[in-house]
Amino acid sequence: MTRLAEKIAVITGGAGGIGQAAARQFTAEGARVVLVDREEAALQSVVRSLGEDVASYVVADVTQPEQVQSYVNETVQRWGGIDILLANAGIEGIVSPIPDYPVDMFEQVMAVNVRGVWLGLKYVIPVMRERGGGSIVITSSTAGIGGTAGMSAYTTSKHAVIGMMRTAALECAPMGIRVNTVNPAPIETRMMRSLEEMRVAAADDSEVTVERTKQSYSARIPLQRYGDPEEVAKMMLFLASDESSYCTGGVYMVDGGRSAGSP
Ligand code: NAD
Q: Does some domain include residue 128?
């Protein structure tokens, strides 16, 4: 299990469902990981479960330039460089039509999901360039390639990072740095529980329950189920590793076939 032997990976949103799964798979393949998140207690518990010899954490808000600079600096000090960035921290915002969507919530979602990713690129690229190359994986979504009623901020943000990824892929190719997105459909994490509950609240109809909401989401997926975080992490592992050495500028769906149908 050495697909990431000698590699150093930074994973933002490392305390969350998909981030933790990626951390497990990356360390199982020989990587050293630095988990970045706002939730210190959760970070501590993930690092303990992975082992402090292979994992460490930095508490940081990805929207703040000085905190992004700090997680980059701390990673370089602790492990000597950065080979992989998994820019994965994200928030869902709320479920509401555009006229009712609060401006400050729109800005918050854009700050975490777009500015947070851009800041990661801004401070990590120079460190990777010094090392002679690397791989950047950005977590977008099926909401990055199609509309989602009620989720204007989230959908906008997940489209935006595809444009950002394509631009970064062009800028970074001469440096040996590959940049791609992974685009999951609904995955079994806290985020989907939150969205299901918000859909129920927005419907204001006793017939609409969390269970039925989940069933209706699942029914739109050809494989008829949500994905598991580990299924997303496997694609992230492939893109992080040298096995994907000819892959850059790509949008990689992990969506149970959700995007295969006609629009
Ligand atoms: P999650 O809520 O379990 O994890 C997200 C993590 O990001 C949390 O630990 C949270 O504390 C962290 N975070 C949020 N704001 C932050 C900030 N400002 N600074 C640092 N950390 C911050 O959800 P998840 O499902 O693991 O989501 C991971 C990524 O996958 C997100 O970008 C999400 O949009 C994307 N995604 C999730 C799904 C899904 O169905 N779960 C589907 C498609 C895409």
A: yes
